[in-house]
Amino acid sequence: MNLDDGNPIVNAHDPIVLVRNAHRSFRRGNERVDVLGGLSLEVPPGEFLALMGPSGSGKTTLLNLIAGLDRPDQGEIFVAGDKVSGMNETQLAAWRTRHVGFIFQFYHLLPVLTAFENVELPLLLLPLSARARREQVMTALDLVGLTERVRHRPGQLSGGQQQRVGIARAIVTDPSLLVADEPTGDLDAKSATEILDLMAELNTSLHKTIIMVTHDLRAARRAHRTLHLDKGVLVTEPDMSLYEAG
Questions:
Q1: Confidence check: pLDDT of 8 > 50
Q2: Domains contained in the chain, CATH given
Q3: Measured between alpha carbons, how far is 114 from 137 in angstroms, rounded to an integer?
Q4: Using CA of residue 90, residue 76, residue 212, residue 13, what is the dihedral sign?
Q5: Computed from CA positions of residues 79, 84, 89, 91, in that sequence, does the dihedral angle turn out positive or negative?
Q6: Pick from 200, 187, 208: which is nearest to 99 by CA?
Q7: How confident is the model at residue 14 (pLDDT cuts 50, 70, 90)?
Q8: What does pTM read for this prediction?
Q9: How far apart are CA 4 and CA 144, in angstroms?
Q10: Cβ proximity of 214 and 50 under 8 Å
């Protein structure tokens, strides 16, 4: 795929995520807080990557930049060949719908909607017929093992089941990238293991690229690679006492 503005050509050997010299800061009163300081990163297609770091290290900021929820002050970010850092808000919204699936710690399900309706939500933004939407929703729910819970609302589901609905919603558009922010942080050990098993299966069977932020060493061990951030930069000798052993 040839891209404008000097964007790299995407093929099977190119990274699906490319971060070049990303800087990000925020204002706190009159003070500027530097969160990312010239960070660069490559993620190959099909990788399951874990990002770890203490609170305030910049890992969620990095995840948000990659997912198109935020933009860097300086630097460039490419995902699947698209220059995400160069898009305006309208372009980003349309791009996220097709290319990024989000998995959250607290699920972010609408309590008045059924599992089916929660999973269907991203598809309502796409030019699909009702029949096509139903087929994609049922396929996603089948992949996460919830076809018998399609009419249940979140309050009728366990935490693990709610997270499965969240994962089905994340994959229903067949996105290029899955981003997960502490996906097991609100689950008991058994449910967390089941969710990690499911994410590993999506990575292996569907070849989904996954970037996961976590404090949990048990979760990070399921990834192909773990990178550690501290004060906005990647570090090679992290303080492992900061993490949960699991």
A1: no
A2: 46-70+95-236 (3.40.50.300)
A3: 12
A4: positive
A5: negative
A6: 208
A7: confident
A8: 0.90
A9: 38
A10: yes
